[in-house]
Automatic annotation (TrEMBL):
Gene for this chain: GIP
Annotated spans, Disordered: 1-40, 98-121
UniProt protein name: GIP protein
Comp. bias regions, Basic and acidic residues: 8-37
Top-level lineage group: Eukaryota
UniProt-listed GO biological process terms: RNA processing
Short name of one Pfam family: Wbp11
InterPro entries from the UniProt entry: Wbp11/ELF5/Saf1_N
All copies of domain Wbp11/ELF5/Saf1 N-terminal, residue ranges: 15-81
Length: 121
């Protein structure tokens, strides 16, 4: 037995066109890809906002040193480029969040007793 052929539709000019159902599936798949990419970017930015500025800058300098030494893989180079771009764009927000976390931690530690003192009290 031979292979069953797909139904191929042609327009008035004789060119192949997608079946309408197949075209809908293709569009849905493309929208899914775009949404996933958008969600990845949002998660990466949210994670960047949670990081400490000194840690991010240390990572970037480490990547740049590896690049100078010629030991940076393509994957890490892409990661470095992405981090440099996002950190450059969100630097002020990241610094504000870091300061806010530092102030919250400083305020919290002065008002609460350490765990050892709580157990003794």
């Amino acid at each position: 037995m031979g292979k069953s052929k797909k139904a191929v539709l042609h327009d008035a000019g004789g060119k192949k066109i997608l079946h309408p159902a197949e075209a809908d599936r293709k569009k849905a798949k493309q929208r899914l890809r775009e949404n996933r990419a958008k969600n990845r970017k949002k998660r990466f930015e949210a994670k960047m906002l949670e990081k400490d500025t000194s840690l991010v800058q240390a990572e970037i300098t480490e990547y740049k040193e590896l690049e100078k030494a010629g030991k940076l893989t393509k994957w890490k180079k892409d990661k470095m480029d992405r981090e440099v771009a996002v950190f450059g764009r969100l630097k002020e927000k990241v610094e504000q969040n870091t300061r806010k976390r530092f102030e919250d931690n400083a305020g919290r530690s002065s008002t609460t007793l350490p765990r050892a003192q709580l157990l003794l009290a």
